[in-house]
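Record now logged for everyone:
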Amino acid sequence: RLIDIDQAIFRAIDYYQRGLPREAIPILQQVLARRPDMEIAYSHLAMLQWEIGDPVEAIATLRAAVKAGLGSVAVRTKLGIYLAETGQAREAIPLLEETTRDQYPDLDALNALGISLARADQMDDAVRTFQRVLTLRPGNAMALENLGSIALMRGQMDAARRYFTDALAADPISAQAHNGMGVVEMKAGNRKAAIDHWEKAVARDPQNFFALYNLATELVNDGQTERARPYLEQYVRTAPRGFYGREVRTIEEILRDLGK
């Protein structure tokens, strides 16, 4: 019955909101066994699989959704992002190009295309894609953040600072922009300002593991070990080892040293 399916999805969402994604996953898998035409279940399941550090299954779930004829813009965008983030950007690019051919495409999909192009080291095309986003939506924080990240990768610190500043003007609590500004400040030798930005990033998004790692390790480097400890422990406790295994081991080693 439809009401049973709805209740199962709400139960899965409740598990997720309580920090129990692994308990939610089998519920959504059971929903899909009964209703393989339910796009929302594919989307939620893929997100949970991704968050626990199982990208292979997350991508397989989204591929199954597309195969089932449920390839909405949202599903294709998420699949493209996941492919790009796992080193399969060249497969993501044609998928996202097809999704963004319209004169006024979905901006999340267009940003995802830019990210995929950057991951494929097609930086000029990525920049043009993010600039297209800004033409369609001036002040789009995500496009500005992405342009800032590319400027960082190219060593263009002044440009990176401008983009991240503009992104924060558009979205003052953007975790990604605060993380980027933290990197800019750190490279300029301003550790205190960098730490302040990373703390704001982590406060906004505890799962921004780049900001969390930077914050924890730079507090240690600054001699603020007791202030660093909760962030170190948070990283070990929450960072998916499937993505951040090397970094988790580094943090564990730091904690062992602090425990001496």
About this structure: The mean pLDDT is 94. The first helix runs from residue 2 to 17. DSSP finds 15 helices and no strands in the chain. The radius of gyration is 20 Å.
